[in-house]
Amino acid sequence: EALANHEGELNLSHLTSLSDKAAEALAKHKGELNLSGLTSLSDKAAEALANHKGKLNLSGLTSLSDKAAEALANHEGELNLSHLTSLNDSPSHIALAEKLANHEGTLYLSGLTSLSDKAAEALANHEGTLELSGLTSLSDKAAEALANHEGTLELSGLTSLSDKAIEALAKHKGHLSLNGLTSLSDKAAEALSSHI
Questions:
Q1: Rounded CA separation 191/187 (Å)
Q2: What does the alpha-carbon distance between residue 143 and residue 167 come to, in Å, rounded to a whole number?
Q3: Of 67, 183, 189, 190, which is least packed with CB atoms within 10 Å of its CB?
Q4: 3-state DSSP assignment of residue 194
Q5: What is the SS3 string spanning 164-176?
Q6: What is the pLDDT of residues 33-42, one digit of tens each?
Q7: What pTM, to 2 d.p., does this model score?
């Protein structure tokens, strides 16, 4: 509880576990809270940390339960979940994707290897660079959603895409990085030639 009274950034990046009670205490800290060393978080701890006011770095987390995602979607302030591996279609994960999309500047979600169509729709509303280079596959519907994103779209982890997905992404306005693609059909090349 004494650490919660510290002013300014509180860097506890080497902390690998956090009790629910400690999470409640640290949530009272005013200012940036770096807990990037955590690889798991209980639902109760997530609920407590959601009450933190200020930047919250939980970049070490790779997964979140629906309940934890729902809680963190209500966090007021910047939220770093850059190593999260999946955003699914559950209402809580969609709410979290919507929260993340409101992030100002570059949104780093390079840990994502799985992205649902609905989560892609939510993330497409992000204004600024959208870093999704961890994705190794993308559905046609998710590609259509992400094509509506305005700003840099980083998808360099994709090694293949359907022609339909490429046609959709070719309509994206802004920098588009697909430098992981290893092959391209004539139809896809023609579609990309019109990318602005």
A1: 6
A2: 9
A3: 183
A4: coil
A5: HHHHHHCCCECCE
A6: 999 999 999 9
A7: 0.91
